[in-house]
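Weekly sync notes, structure subgroup
Attendees: PM, AL, DS (notes)

Item 1: joint prediction request from the bench team. They want all two components modeled as one assembly rather than separately. Inputs as received:
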Amino acid sequence: MNPELSTLNLSVGIDLGGTNIKAALVDTQSAKTLVTLSKPTRDGEFEGAMPRFALTVREIVHEFEAQAGGKLAVGLSAPGLANPDGRCIEWMPGRMHGLEKFDWSAFLERDCRVLNDAHAALLGEVWAGAAQNARDAFMLTLGTGVGGAIWSGGRLLQGKIGRAGHLGHLSVDSNAPCDDFNTPGSLEDAIGNQTIAQRGEGRYPTTHALLDAYAAGDEHAKKVWLTSVRHLAAAIASLINVLDPEVVILGGGIAVGAKDRLFVPLQQMLDTFEWRPGGNQARIVPAELGDSAGCLGSVFNLLNR
Amino acid sequence: MNPELSTLNLSVGIDLGGTNIKAALVDTQSAKTLVTLSKPTRDGEFEGAMPRFALTVREIVHEFEAQAGGKLAVGLSAPGLANPDGRCIEWMPGRMHGLEKFDWSAFLERDCRVLNDAHAALLGEVWAGAAQNARDAFMLTLGTGVGGAIWSGGRLLQGKIGRAGHLGHLSVDSNAPCDDFNTPGSLEDAIGNQTIAQRGEGRYPTTHALLDAYAAGDEHAKKVWLTSVRHLAAAIASLINVLDPEVVILGGGIAVGAKDRLFVPLQQMLDTFEWRPGGNQARIVPAELGDSAGCLGSVFNLLNR
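Output from the run, pasted for the record:
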């Protein structure tokens, strides 16, 4: 037991990902992470009927409890659609074997609240990051695919089956082919790293390579990148009309890597596309919390239920 | 005074439009309209500093109060962006002269709650129409332009400045020219009646004429109409991913006039475009309340504040 800790204001946040389980012991009064750790998920491994990742989560919780000297509340986020009652991930086909309908409260013997991972990342930013004090915000995570989440009127939008906020599956070119979720010409296909080969005509192995060529003045790279940014700008302008946020947060590997190469042309295009009644303009900002957003958001979800 | 009425369960709903002021005396227990009336708006006319439409609204309220035999609560909807506190329309440039920042509570000497007209139409459908008992729904109104509104988690989405739900200003073809709200290739331009001349290459004076030609088997009309429906289907599939509704309501003159000529091809396209995790499918339904939705929604907004 660590004598500097007290269970009074402590909770555990778990971000259960496909590769790693990130965990944090969080001070709920300051919204600060006190201790963090990361362990491999080992998706597909089981001990008896129990997924290995569930046992690892329990070991982590017990380890934090030993440090804190008492029982702790646990918030957990994971891929897939979370049941609106927050007891489990209801729908996650194809990977994270054993996660679907796994009852975390029963397994951890406490009231554990479960949340979709993109929803958790936004809640983290609302609690302690780029959207602090905002009542209306949305987040786009630009990586292999494009994820998202919505905070509206001081509340996380979940929708009927926990699907709300799948902002990557917005059609920005409805004449184009459908993506993995049946959306024609989706934002995800327009800027997610998984389509870089087609978009870049095979010249760039990754979006980071595309960005480097763009920064070096390559005309082809400029055309490919700014086409993607134009689609993103159209999507953000659309979502501003739909959701009317104060702040739009951009996270994920592409946003982190691109920095001004994303934010400068994007803001210029929004100067054309964004409707600004009465001069109102949404702030476009980078995510602040990086890897710790999911753990913090999972804890905020406990406090905010 | 009408002896069959009691002020106990009665409220007044006002739908202040550009052409007419519709008003209803509403039974708040049954969500039923007891008496309705309509008077011309006479936008642009003033008596002293007072817009004529404000005086007409007050006359209507007094007329209903004479019938009911006592003071009544008033809910009002109008075009423009309503202030989040519900006291006035904050932003409505160019028409409805005198409406911007007009303080209805002060003028009517009671706590009058003001709402955007598209928001009110959806609230009416939630209270007494096509979205009864739904916690998650959105509505698209297909007319001269395309309007919309969102009900999420049992709450109207308003956003930071009351703009949320401007679903006509979603980009469905981000390479196309910008609409009146700066949105490139907007849903509004793709199906709203105001672009019928361009879309139909001048062959159809109205969308109703286009629909008649389509029903008669005209190949050109078929291509023009189904292109518009395809854009609408892409937009609805996108908004299902963003908002995760149980029900999607289609209203407005085009939806009312088109009936199956809209709903049948739209549902076929959604069979391709809609993401249906675990078999979950949103219901696509016509609006039920027509002209009375705004008055009913204005009263529901009083009850639901």
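Discussion: DSSP finds ten helices and 13 strands in chain B.
Action: AL to compare against the crosslinking data before next sync.
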